[in-house]
Amino acid sequence: MGDLKSYSIAFFFSSLFLIAEKLPAHPLDVGYLAVQQKEDHLEVSLELNPKMAETLLGNANAGKDKNQNEALLQSTLFGTKVKSPAGICQWNNGSVSLKSNELLTLSAQIRCSESDPETLELSPSFLQKLPTTFQLFVRSDLGGSTPSLFVADKDSPIHLSPRRSRGLMTFIYMGMQHIGITPDQWMHGGRIGLPDGIDHILFIVALILACFHFRNIVFAATGFTIGHSLTLALGAYDVVHLPQKLVESAIAMSIAWMGIEALLRRQRKRLWIETSLFGLVHGLGLASALQELNLHGLTKVKALFGFNVGVEIGQLGVVAVIFPTLLLISRWPKFSLAVVRTAASLVSICGLFWMVSRLAA
Predict the structure, then answer these.
(1) What is the pTM of this model?
(2) Which domain range does residue 60 map to?
(3) Which residues, other chains included, contact 156 with Cβ-Cβ below 8 Å and sequence gap of 6+?
(4) CB-based contacts of 237: which residues, under 8 Å, 6+ apart?
(5) What does the pLDDT average to over 215-226?
(6) Residue 276 domain flag
C-alpha cells in the first residue's frame, strides 16, 4: 500500500510539472475598444496585448513593420463591418503604434452617411481567432450621453447606442472570470482546460487545507479579503504601483508558502495575519486588470466595487466546493491526511515552480 501511495504521489508531481510548464504567468487576455462621437466622424481605438496581435498575424512584428501594421488593421478594425440605420459605414485613416511590450494601440475613423448615427452595429470577426479566454471591453460615447462600458459577445454583433447603459454586472462577472470559476474559463476551443485564475484558486485551496476548523477559515479568509480589497483599490487608482513581474512572483511565493503551512499541519491561531499580508499582494495582481481599462469617475468606482464582489463570489465558490469535500473525507482520518498532504505538496510545488519561472521570465 505504501509503494502504491508513493507511486501515486510521484505521478501527481510529474503531472503537475507538465501542467505548470504550459501555464502562462497570469496573462491578461483583455482588449479595449473605444468608440467616440466627433463632429463628422467616429474615432475608434483598439488596445491589445502584442501577443494577441501575434496570434492574429502569426508573427511578432506588429507595431514595428509597416506591412505588418497594415495587415493587422485589415484583420481587426478594417475587417470589422459597421452598419448604421442609413447603411454601411466606411473605415479610413488607420494607424498602429506600439506603446510598450504589453500595449499595442490601433486607431481609425468611421464615417457614416449620417454625421450622428443613433445606433451602430459592429461585427468584429477577429474575435473568433483569439483565445476563448480573451475579453473585449467596449466603451461607447455616442450622442453626448454618459459613456457605457460592457463586454462584447464574441458570437453576436456589437450594438452601440446612446441609450445603452450597462456596467456593474459586467464587472462582477469579470471578477468571477479573473478568479477562474466561470464555465468559459475552463473551456478552451471546446476542450476542458485550466483557467487563467488557477493561481488564485490554488491559494484559496491551500488556505482551506491549512485551517483545521471552519472558524479558522472564516478568520483567514476575512483577513485575505481585507488585504486584497485594500490594494485592489489603491492599485486601481494607481496610488500603489509595483512591477508586474514582482507582483506575480510574490503571488506564486504566497501559494507555495500557504501550501507548506498546510503540509506542516501546524495549529496557527494567527494564520489570518499571514493571509492578510498575502491579500495585499494578490490585490495588486487583481488591480492590473482594472488598470488596463483606463476608467475614470463613477465608472471606475462601479468597476472597483463590481470586480471586488465578483472576486469574493469566486472565492466563496472555491470554499463551497473544497470545504464540504474535506468534511466528507474526514470520516476516514488516514485517507483524509494522505489527501491533504498530497494536495498541499502539489500546491507548494506549483507555487515554487511559478515563482522561479516568473522571476526568470
Answers:
(1) 0.63
(2) 32-130+132-166
(3) none
(4) 300
(5) 88
(6) yes
